[in-house]
Amino acid sequence: MPERRFRVWRGDARGGGFQEYAVEVDPGMVVLDVIHRIQARQANDLAVRWNCKAGKCGSCSMEINGRPRLGCMTRMNMFGADEVITVQPLKTFPVVKDLVTDVAWNYERNKRIPPFKPRPRGADGQHRMMQNDVDRVQEFRKCIECFLCQDVCHVLRDHDRKDAFVGPRFMIRLASLEMHPLDAADRIPAVRAEFGSGLCNITRCCTEVCPEHIGITDNGIIPLKERVVDRYYDPIQWLARRIFGRGGEH
Amino acid sequence: MVNVSELLTYEHDVLVVGAGGAGLRAAIECSAQGLSTGVVCKSLLGKAHTVMAEGGLAAALGNVDARDNWKIHFRDTMRGGKFLNQWRMAELHAREAPDRVRELEEWGAVFDRTRDGLISQRNFGGHRYPRLAHVGDRTGLEIIRTLQDYGIHRGFQVYMECTGLDLMTDGGRIAGLLAYFRETGRFALFKAKAVILATGGAGKAWRVTSNSWEYTGDGYGMAYEAGAELMDMEFTQFHPTGMVWPPSVRGILVTEGVRGDGGILTNNKRERFMFNYIPEKFAAETAATEEEANRWLTGDSTARRPPELLTRDVVARAITREVNEGRGTPHGGVYLDIASRRPADFIRKKLPSMYHQFKELAEVDITREPMEVGPTLHYFMGGVRVDPDTQETTVPGLFAAGECAAGLHGANRLGGNSLSDLVVFGRLAGVGAARYVRALPAAPRVPDEQAATAIRRATDILNRESGTNPYLIQEDLQNIMGRNVGIVRSDDELKTALREMERLKAEAARVKANGAAQYNPGWHAALDLRPLLITAEAVTRAALERQESRGGHTRVDYPDERAEWLKANIVVRKGRDGMETRRHERPAPPKELADIAYAKIEDLEAAIART
Ligand SMILES: Cc1cc2nc3c(=O)[nH]c(=O)nc-3n(C[C@H](O)[C@H](O)[C@H](O)COP(=O)(O)OP(=O)(O)OC[C@H]3O[C@@H](n4cnc5c(N)ncnc54)[C@H](O)[C@@H]3O)c2cc1C
Ligand code: SF4
Ligand code: SF4
Ligand code: FES
């Protein structure tokens, strides 16, 4: 079995550094497997989050060779045979310990988003929605809350504007509510003011790292920005939309 | 010495342990009933097992086939459970599931649609009609996110990454929970008038499992220690289709939706072997030839269902037999083929996460090649014994719901019946707990020494000089269970397992975790050993007791169902000298329900059509 070299960041809020581990790697392994092997054999107290091991829960987010990734979906055979693999915690959030970060900010922001507000059911007691009217919303609802997009977005990462911008994850959550065919609430003023849609300058870095391949920028953020523009700079069109129903994008 | 008065302390009317579908639905109900409610969970919110569910949730909405009805769902559930289910629970479940699904829609869930814009439903094993409301193959994500995003506005408090260790009792009544925060290692005392356990199952006692690290049977362990009863623990569900290759993903689930949407099972001779394993009981409702099964797939309503959609116990045993008799694949599984049955874009649309999972983890393109699959430990039919109407356990003030509770599924669970279980019985547990709290004359008190004992037991693991590595004990247990308490069991092997467990218990008493209490997975793994071992022993003892084969429990030495065993459920409880088992007599079912469950399907459907 080939031995591979890993550099894993160990430490906590007070500081830390990289520690080297030599680990045997079996065929088919992913980075999270290797971290677990280190944990079982060399460092019992190495902290890492995970649940599903199949890219479904969004727990195992980390930065692998500088790129935000899910540890459970990063196969070892994508690296060169003697490449050293560097693993560190998400940079945008405060470190708790080793690879675990404090992502509470995301949960707090989410709470501020005005909840789904359904329109009344039809006369037959049913809600009717056509599949092609919900495709886009379903795309956004694939989000596993791994927060890799939050990690990579420069507004949060480099400029630390967590006070002014909710980040791509919650922009698409807002979009999923705004485009939900049954929803009757209006969040557009808040998208602009409280949630800071103007701070996104469409670099698309978030879309690139999303493990669910959600078109965060093109399908979510840009249409939201357009709605903001319509509302604030083109009130006639907005009014028309209010009168003749929602619609626009599918 | 531990000073209990200095502990972090929280107070609620009801404390819910677990934030999967069952826990969240219970908490929503408690809040709606005006109670102060807290929720503790081991992971972050939204990461519980429920998020991994794929195929769908079962409810007789009748959107795709109008002939469906709660009575047929009920009949399917009883037959799937080999009639060992709690009749009343199976009835409540089938009757209430459609309302719970509509409620999820009202809270924002976006299920796949039919051509008329209604909630679409898919076929699944053991369900007579297309019945599973779904979102592609990520239904669990949709459900947990809907409950989460609705729940955060309902006023209950969530304590994330907080693990419950021991239930606190006051004169036999529930008084709270002693827990610790994973991040800091700090202990916390939750005082509560009622506790609802929604902690899920215990797949981590086996090596090949679809379950995550969270599934260490904590609810079973805590309930057992507090004096509650466990029931039906011998019935463990091996899902027929887990991944088998590469080794590091062995056990990860391949949804039954693949077969529901047309996938077939073949052996290394490319024979569609399931036709050789159709049980007599199901012969009348199963296709007899490939030709008929193919007609069913094209929507011919006169054709019967393909044998790949027989219940999970039947399919898992068939696969095991094919592999054992040398007809398996190179990596010890069988082939699951949808590539030759459906066009590539259909597969990518209906099974996107399976497509993704195989491509990323196994480098297999399921739109072109078959998958290799084999059985994986998936689900606990058994669990904490509860009253069917209130979900209360035998300990006053202690409730249980979801996978953690026993009763709905009997000897075998139908796919899709768990997600519906969570929302139906999660809600009922909330109703039951609220009624209990309101009737409680005075708030219970947590005796200091109970909390102190729990803390001491936990800190000893860190403080002792040296001891066994917790990961090695867990691995040891997993191997013992895999070897001796697998799909097919025998008296000999079960006794061997019990002997080995005695050794492990002794080792677990000396387990040592290195490092500090702050976010220390080694310590967490050590603490998980107690509930894991209790669960493993309960399964093994119950399996030894039940001298027959039924549903998820198969004995080589008693290969058939035996009528006398239909008369009792096996109950496990803590006795003075260790674990005790007893047979709990089943009362005769109400006549109306028995008539439905035992009716010939044609007669039942004719009767439904007349009303
Ligand atoms: C891969 C997979 C696919 C599945 N697909 C389907 C499907 O398509 N249809 C279907 O019906 N069923 C399916 N199932 C089964 C179903 O998903 C589970 O049975 C169900 O989600 C369990 O829900 P729950 O609410 O009971 O518990 P879970 O969702 O497992 O939640 C348990 C909660 O308890 C918490 N907890 C555990 N112990 C403690 C403790 N000591 N202290 C504090 N908190 C604790 C956990 O942190 C978690 O929050 C699937 C299961 C798996 C694994
Ligand atoms: S596109 Fe917008 S949200 Fe996405 S990374 Fe760039 S700035 Fe951030
Ligand atoms: S949008 Fe994509 S990257 Fe962002 S949290 Fe969701 S799944 Fe992760
Ligand atoms: S462990 Fe769930 S996404 Fe990696």
Task: Provide a descriptive summary of the structure in words.
The complex is a heterodimer of chains A (250) and B (611). Chain A is of the alpha+beta class and 250 residues long. Chain A folds into 2 domains: 3-101, Ubiquitin-like (UB roll), CATH 3.10.20.30; 104-244, Fumarate Reductase Iron-sulfur Protein, Chain B, domain 2 (Orthogonal Bundle), CATH 1.10.1060.10. Chain A has helices at 31-41, 104-112, 131-141, 148-152, 154-157, 168-178, 188-192, 205-209, 216-233, 235-244; strands at residues 3-12, 15-24, 61-64, 67-70, 85-88, 95-97, 100-101. In chain A, the strands form 2 sheets. Chain A has a 5-stranded mixed sheet with strand order 2-1-5-3-4. The longest helix of chain A has 18 residues, at 216-233. The mean pLDDT of chain A is 93. Chain B is an alpha/beta fold and 611 residues long. Chain B has helices at residues 21-32, 70-80, 87-106, 139-151, 218-225, 257-260, 280-283, 290-297, 312-324, 344-350, 352-362, 417-439, 448-463, 470-484, 491-508, 521-545, 591-598, 601-610, and strands at residues 8-17, 37-40, 57-58, 121-122, 132-133, 157-159, 162-170, 173-181, 187-197, 230-231, 236-243, 264-266, 334-337, 371-380, 383-384, 398-400, 488-489, 554-555, 568-575, 578-585. Residues 58, 143-149, 168-169, 172, 209-212, 214, 216 of chain A line the site of one iron/sulfur cluster (SF4). One iron/sulfur cluster binds next to helix 4 and helix 6 of chain A.
